[in-house]
Amino acid sequence: MNSIHPYFKFLLLFIPIFGTSSLVSQDDAHALYIRSIYDHALTESNCYQRLFHLSESIGGRLTGSENAQNAVDWTFQELKNLGVDSVWKQECMVPHWQRRKEATVFVNLPSGAKELQATSLGNSIGTEGMDWSGEIIEVLHLDSLEGLGESTLKDKIVFFNRPMDPTKIHTGHAYGGAVDQRSRGPAMAARFGAKAVLVRSMTTLLDDVPHTGVTVYDEDGRKIPGIAISTLDAEFLSKSLKANAKLTATINADCGMAEDKLSHNVVAEIRGSEYPDEIILVGGHLDSWDLAGGAHDDGAGCMHSIQVFETLLAIGYKPKRTLRCVMFMNEENGLAGGKKYAELSNQANEFHLAAIESDLGGFTPRGFGCSAREDVYKPYLAKFQAFEKFLTPYDLHLKAGGGGADIGPLKSQGGLLIGLRPDPQRYFDLHHTKNDNIDQVNKRELELGAAAMTSLVYLIDQMGLK
Amino acid sequence: MNSIHPYFKFLLLFIPIFGTSSLVSQDDAHALYIRSIYDHALTESNCYQRLFHLSESIGGRLTGSENAQNAVDWTFQELKNLGVDSVWKQECMVPHWQRRKEATVFVNLPSGAKELQATSLGNSIGTEGMDWSGEIIEVLHLDSLEGLGESTLKDKIVFFNRPMDPTKIHTGHAYGGAVDQRSRGPAMAARFGAKAVLVRSMTTLLDDVPHTGVTVYDEDGRKIPGIAISTLDAEFLSKSLKANAKLTATINADCGMAEDKLSHNVVAEIRGSEYPDEIILVGGHLDSWDLAGGAHDDGAGCMHSIQVFETLLAIGYKPKRTLRCVMFMNEENGLAGGKKYAELSNQANEFHLAAIESDLGGFTPRGFGCSAREDVYKPYLAKFQAFEKFLTPYDLHLKAGGGGADIGPLKSQGGLLIGLRPDPQRYFDLHHTKNDNIDQVNKRELELGAAAMTSLVYLIDQMGLK
């Protein structure tokens, strides 16, 4: 694992004279170094094997679960084994939602009851294991609820069925345009007396796989069950409602919140030699939903981040700035880890010059996007995009816009927030489903993502962002 | 299928005033038109359904086979059904290689015979169904044969085992750096009296799936069997040879050339209204290897090309230049179709201003590459890259270098040869194996490839290349 690639051995000859030699220009030296990062990542890296372990042996990592805590312990040890300067666990209290009995949904057709492919939304309450029946009313927009009013919606099962827009090139934009139905549908429908909510799954794919994901209730509002159904069943239900306006559904689920639990972020650090107070962070979130191994969401991002450290250490890189690798806890249904990390960082008067999150899967990287506090953004963006010339040989492009949920709370520190942009086309086929497993991850694609992140860390560390 | 997307209906209002109106600049009009192409391709296209039929119902399309001829007839009819100006079949004689009995390879270990995962190379002879045994000698480079000489190689089974270089970012470059072992290994080893050749499969993946592909004998040279073994078995065999230098293998295969057959390219045309003598071609190759449905290689390219025509017709586009859609026959083991197409085109004094081939799979498109006859290349390249601004919203980038095997013979006409560049990471995991089937194709990724090609055809048709 730590053997040195022949190409890098050649490179090592030049390192002592970087910056002073007329043999190799500074730009050429950077290009050569990035090439050595890729050579390592594509031949010696362990990110795929680690992801296999995380998603298959440990498995799904619902916040508050035993698996999630096993993942904390395992990644702590893996980072320690790399020989970083320090590794620690950061305590944080997290919500502990439990899917005790998966949701069932039957639509009561004139020809008999037909079961739909369903899964309870994360953080949702259930029916306490009892059958609840109600008339179904199809709604496309949250805004439409007000017009329908309590007179129409009381005791109804509201069925949100607005598809993700397939004409968006970036599936994330299509997701962003539809996910309000899942995240806020149950809370909003509850305001008008609805009994429960069914939501069309968040994917452009037409298939029979339901997608879970978080729903957020009003703080002191009524809570009603939220259940996702597959897109094919959503199409079927919509057609059935056109034929029979007064259809009812019978739902049953047992799920809900237990007591908050103590959990952890895992943080590893390599101390910077010249500017130790400027932190460059790489990270992903260690928790996942419970339906699968969470290989793409976000095992990939965590293993990318560990690989950044492994590669830099293996090729003997000594950073000028302090590098942090963070496994955030509870991105999916609370963001407790991301908030806690920023809170402690602010208390310690730290400054994150850059934070890079990978949370869009382990597919071929297309580049990075970035954002920052408005008053500091412009010069950062210019410097960031000036790095592109070093990355175009690897088919990477640097764009405005992007970041990550876990690093979002660091925005107030005034550093640059950066998101890895993997190819987005397959992500929402798998997102929050039983299919988000290692068999959907391509080893080379995963390694290329780690190499891209490592290269960007190198460039920021070498040249700063001012 | 031909219903008009609402977005496009809006667009239609502007079309009569394109170029003259002050409401919409020419560039904006082009951008809007490309948006309408994407809207159609992502909501109304049939390329995935067609690819399903081609690769699953028709199946593998080895040149000269009944399946290949069924594919000719079916694509002819599909193109006719689109309502193009004309469709015709172009006769060409093609080689008819037959895999009568798949190869078996046993390595005779001290502990007993162990079977390796093997497949005969395309165009290879077999052992006429008899067991042939010989001592195995591992070789990494064709160049090494001369040094070993006939004294060492006579009656040996030469085992070419140089891996594809995993550090190449573009897997095509890694393939290009290793494929001489498969394409020329048997011919070269035969010159030194070898009995047969085993070749490590052409993939960076370590798995148990052998990859076929063409081998080319010397015109009047000795022919010896060429058999690919899986990469895992190549690793195993190499290790076994280190432990036991004098290992033998026993091979058996029945395959070889039958009489040439009559086959066809399929050509469809939409006649240009202003410059009918400037042809813009889109195409792929209809033949495939016989081990799978040939979904990525090159069903995807053929269905991309038909989709270009379907989308342009569906949105009512009237080209200025003549558009051709070509299903080339016999790219895999002879290129008879590509050569015949260029021969007939030259006889008719035609000029292909641009030819765009899709033959690298149905994965997310990253852009296009181009090449041309040296004396005309520079101005073409500048004009080509000036189109990039219209395509960056779709994450497409335009580069120097590229084309396609089938369109290669058109180079002498002095037009621009263009290759679609899909994401290359997964292609050689599947290439020429039993796994190149529709389940490895993502519908959106395929549609995005078709939309990219359609957009480029539109841009070249509108603005030319001068």
Explain this structure.
Two copies of one chain form a homodimer. Chain A has 466 residues and is an alpha/beta fold. Chain A has two domains: 6-85 and 271-463, Aminopeptidase; 97-259, 3-Layer(bba) Sandwich (Glucose Oxidase, domain 1). Helices cover 36% and strands 26% of the residues of chain A. In chain A, strands 1, 2, 3, 4, 5, 6, 7, 8, 9, 10, 11, 12, 13 and 14 form a 14-stranded mixed β-sheet that branches. In chain A, a hairpin with a 2-residue loop joins β1 (86-109) and β2. Chain A binds chain B through residues 5, 7, 38-39, 42-43, 166-167, 169, 171, 204-205, 364, 366, 393-395, 397, 423, 425-426, 429, 442-445, 448, and chain B through 5, 7, 38-39, 42-43, 166-167, 169, 171, 204-205, 364, 366, 393-395, 397, 423, 425-426, 429, 442-445, 448.
Biggest beta-sheet profile of chain A: 14 strands, mixed
Assembly state of the chains shown: homodimer
Radius of gyration of chain A using CA atoms only: 24 Å
Shape of chain A: elongated
Class from helix and strand fractions of chain A: alpha/beta
CATH homologous superfamily of the largest domain in chain A, by name? Zn peptidases
Order of helices and strands of chain A: HHHHEEEEHEHHEEHEEHEHEEHHEEHH
CATH class category of the largest domain in chain A = Alpha Beta
Low-confidence stretches of chain A: 1-20
Q: What's the number of domains of chain A?
A: 2
Structure summary, number of beta strands of chain A: 14
In short:
The structure is a homodimer of 466-residue chains. Chain A is α/β, with parallel strands linked by helices and 466 residues long. In chain A, 36% of the residues lie in helices and 26% in strands.
